[in-house]
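Incident review: delayed structure delivery

Summary: a single-chain prediction request sat in the queue longer than the usual turnaround. Root cause was a stuck worker, restarted by the on-call engineer. No data loss occurred. The affected request and its eventual output are reproduced below so the record is complete for anyone auditing the incident later.

Affected input:
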Amino acid sequence: MNSISETEILFTLIKTRFGDRVTPAELEEMRKGLTAILDAVLALRSVKLENGDEPHQFFKPHGEYAP
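Output delivered after worker restart:
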């Protein structure tokens, strides 16, 4: 799971900036979205890459192949 402190810090920032323009229900939806984003961020941070690692190349030809 994600770090509670990071979630709370970012949610406090969102609430401070936009809290006067949204309902409490909307704020709760924002908290859920933020939690999901931070869970994905932690998963990405856990992947160790070396300097020479390149992005995965996916090849999909256009149309049908005719020899």
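Verification: The CA atoms of residues 20 and 55 lie 42 Å apart.
Action items: add queue-age alerting; document worker restart procedure.
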